[in-house]
Design a protein that fits this description.
Elements lengths: L3 H8 L6 H13 L6 E4 L6 H10 L8 E5 L8 H6 L16 H4 L4 E5 L6 H13 L1 E3 L6 E3 L3 E6 L3 H6 L5 H7 L3 E3 L10 H16 L8 H7 L7 H15 L7 H12 L6 H36 L25 H8 L14 H18 L4 H8 L3 H10 L11
Helix pairs in contact: 9-11, 10-12, 13-15, 15-16, 16-17
The structure holds adenosine-5'-triphosphate (ATP) and magnesium ion.
The site of magnesium ion has 3 residues, from helix 3.
């Protein structure tokens, strides 16, 4: 029996989804056996964590783990880096040098981004995998190294081999034991545990107060597709904890901070964001409405030299102007703008014309806000497109078409 909790603890791999449990189980099965492993998965899914854990769980754990990022080493020097070189092999080779394979002797070598390895180097890697033998660059002597190879790639190596970028023989040699880590969007049930762990870790290390996430906030996090996977989630958690320092993280905060991060269509999130941005738009419009009323009130007071009661004026608001989701009752409206020290104002001072002006202004601003989209404007203002159309005509809000010359 594989002790999944032990592997979880040693690896630091978080997640209770079925797929992660399969990954953990596989790690438990293959770690103690000296066999090469290919780890696949999108960027940020945890390939490196898994590779490190396999080494830790293996009998080689007391020996070194050498991590090589094949994508970061220039093609011209990758062979001498991997296999070492003999003095005089090339300009600058002032002395004999060991390569990573020799350094990793009796331990593990992790070849990250193996899909980036130059085609010519791949054949040498295949030879080490099959016989344990290699030669330093510029040397005729065959050397041996007892190394366990773990490779990782976020490319589809099968496709790469079909395109001729990756050797088929090496691909078949490597893929015998493959651990495929699914993207986070396929295991969103892990989000809760990941959020918990990353938040606690980050707030503890940085001495930040942490009050948790609301369940709605977690729901929103689960609606995003996380193209950058766990890495993206981790970075997001850390930044939101800094930006919303000390607050319990709400869904609104998540949406606010996630929106600029997206900058591209997300299959799921726009639903949520749309709703809330719509709500935000409504709030904005309401705010503008309040400012407008305030302005009007000031103007009226100036004109009449009297005090005007607008606390009831909301009653005159045409029903089409009702803003969905926001209760525009006379009371609440009054409370919003008429503070305790606001003097009573006579309602008689507000006439039809002002209300029309107000309506016209709101429609004009809303149209502008939504780039003249009548559908969106009608939706936000809670009126039918037809009445909006009529009002646009009535108020002369038609956008003048520029004549092309
Ligand atoms: N299941 C997980 N539990 C805890 N932390 C995780 C998990 N998966 C990934 N992480 C964290 O996410 C970050 C990215 O993980 P890692 O570097 O292993 O991804 P990767 O697959 O190697 O990505 P890349 O392909 O971009 O190199 C790391 O900080 C890692 O600790
Ligand atoms: Mg990696």
């Amino acid at each position: 029996m594989i002790d999944l909790d032990r592997i979880r603890k040693i690896s630091g791999l978080i997640g209770y989804s079925e797929v992660i449990e399969q990954v953990l189980e596989m790690m438990g099965q293959i770690a103690p056996v000296d066999i090469s492993v290919l780890i696949t998965g999108e960027s940020g899914t945890g390939k490196e964590i898994v590779a490190r854990a396999i080494h830790k769980l293996s009998r080689r754990s007391s020996q070194s783990l050498v991590i090589v990022n094949c994508g970061a080493i220039p093609a011209g020097i990758i062979e001498s880096e991997l296999f070492g070189y003999k003095k005089g092999a090339f300009t600058g080779a002032g002395e004999d040098r060991k390569g990573y394979f020799e350094e990793a002797d009796r331990g593990t070598i992790f070849l990250d981004e193996i899909g980036e390895m130059p085609y010519e180097t791949q054949v040498k890697l295949l030879r080490v995998l099959e016989t344990g033998e290699f030669m330093r660059v510029g040397d005729a002597q065959t050397r041996r190294s007892d190394v366990r190879v773990i490779a990782a790639s976020n490319k589809n190596l099968f496709e790469e081999s079909n395109k001729g970028n990756f050797r088929k023989d090496l691909y078949y040699r490597l893929r015998t034991v493959t651990i495929d880590i699914p993207a986070l969007r396929f295991r969103l049930e892990d989000v809760d545990d990941l959020v918990d762990r990353f938040s606690l870790q980050f707030s503890r290390t940085n001495d930040l107060p942490y009050r948790g996430f609301t369940s709605d906030a977690i729901k929103v996090l689960k609606q995003y597709d996380w193209p950058g996977n766990v890495r993206e989630l981790k970075n997001f958690i850390e930044s939101i904890l800094i930006l919303e320092r000390g607050n319990k993280i709400s869904s609104d905060m998540v949406i606010k901070h996630l929106t600029p991060q997206i900058g591209r269509p997300s299959p799921n999130l726009p639903v949520v964001i749309d709703k809330s941005s719509e709500q935000a738009e409504r709030e904005l419009i309401l705010q503008q409405l309040l400012f407008l009323r305030q302005d009007m009130r000031d103007i009226k007071s100036l004109l009449t030299g009297s005090e005007i009661d607008v606390s009831r004026s909301i009653a005159y608001l045409p029903s089409e102007l009702a803003i969905p989701g926001i209760k525009l009752s006379a009371g609440s409206f009054g409370e919003s703008i008429d503070g305790e020290d606001t003097k009573a104002i006579m309602s008689s001072a507000i006439g039809d014309v002002s209300m029309k002006d107000l309506e016209r202004e709101i429609i004009r601003r809303t149209l502008k806000k939504f780039n003249n989209s009548r559908r969106k404007t009608a939706e936000v203002l809670g009126m039918s497109e037809r009445s909006l159309y009529r009002k646009i005509n009535d108020y002369g809000l038609e956008k003048k078409k520029k004549s092309k010359k």
